[in-house]
């Protein structure tokens, strides 16, 4: 992700006629998505891109592949929920990047199911994620109050996102015991740190607490996880 230049941010606040609209937020929609779009696409591309190839390789342990699949299925659900949220608040950047995230992480899940030796267990896990996500979708669509729909969907999407970024912490006890960070997914954690910082900034620009707050928390979690690579380097 390339951080937006000052000119990019300023241009977002200026209309084509050179005037600043007093009633609008400091940045217009054209530049609002710059901070988040490229970074989110990079994490979507980088996470499954290398993993899909390795998912069928014998060098990758089944436990590690299963962990990646769990992360990816959680991201599929998270991307879909944020896509819905983006459509509710009519934000093109949030909608676009989460379409890409949904497609790329779905491709990893499909690849894992294809190569997995425990298809029944895996399909059961995928089915649970799909059913829960569909239930949330149906419930949100049933709400007549748009503001209430935004609030409830925002809360659910925040919870799913934070749980995704905090997932590697499940290996914390093992990392401390083995004094090695080998079990932690460095590329995912690093990109998560970059992405959540940019999206928390983007949420501040939008003045949307559902975008800003969970991403700031996720940024702190990712930063802590990155510190483990310095404290317990891989052997």
UniProtKB/TrEMBL annotation:
Span-the-membrane segments of this chain are: 68-88, 94-115, 122-141, 153-172, 184-205, 211-232
Q: What does this protein do?
A: Mediates sugar transport across membranes.
Protein name (record): Sugar transporter SWEET
Per the record, the similarity remark reads: Belongs to the SWEET sugar transporter family.
Subcellular compartments: Cell membrane; Golgi apparatus membrane
Which domain of life does the UniProt lineage start with? Eukaryota
Tell me a Gene Ontology molecular-function term this record carries: sugar transmembrane transporter activity
Q: Name one Pfam family in it.
A: MtN3_slv
Keywords of this entry:
Cell membrane, Golgi apparatus, Membrane, Repeat, Sugar transport, Transmembrane, Transmembrane helix, Transport
Please provide one cellular component term from the Gene Ontology annotations of this protein: Golgi membrane
UniProt keyword annotation of Metal-binding present: no
What species is this protein from? Apolygus lucorum
Major localization listed first in the record, in broad terms: membrane
The topology of this chain with respect to the membrane is:
Multi-pass membrane protein
> What InterPro entries does UniProt report for this protein, alphabetically?
SWEET, SWEET_rpt
């Amino acid at each position: 992700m390339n951080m937006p230049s000052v000119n990019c941010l300023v241009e977002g606040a200026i209309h084509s006629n050179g005037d600043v609209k007093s009633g609008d937020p400091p940045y217009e929609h054209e530049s609002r998505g710059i901070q988040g779009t490229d970074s989110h696409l990079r994490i979507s591309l980088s996470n499954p891109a290398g993993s899909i190839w390795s998912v069928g390789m014998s060098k990758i342990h089944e436990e590690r592949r299963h962990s990646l699949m769990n992360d990816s299925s959680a991201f599929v659900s998270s991307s879909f929920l944020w896509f819905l949220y983006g459509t509710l608040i009519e934000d093109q950047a949030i909608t676009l990047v989460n379409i890409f995230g949904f497609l790329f992480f779905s491709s990893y899940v499909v690849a894992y199911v294809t190569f997995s030796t425990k298809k029944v267990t895996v399909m059961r896990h995928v089915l649970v994620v799909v059913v829960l996500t569909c239930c949330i979708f149906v419930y949100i669509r049933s709400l007549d109050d748009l503001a209430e729909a935004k609030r409830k969907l925002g809360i659910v999407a925040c919870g799913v996102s934070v749980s995704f970024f905090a997932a590697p912490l499940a290996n914390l006890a093992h990392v401390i015991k083995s004094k090695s960070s080998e079990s932690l997914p460095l590329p995912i954690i690093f990109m998560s740190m970059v992405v959540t910082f940019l999206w928390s900034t983007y949420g501040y620009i939008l003045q949307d607490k559902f975008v800003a707050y969970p991403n700031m928390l996720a940024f702190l979690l990712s930063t802590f996880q990155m510190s483990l690579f310095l404290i317990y380097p891989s052997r």
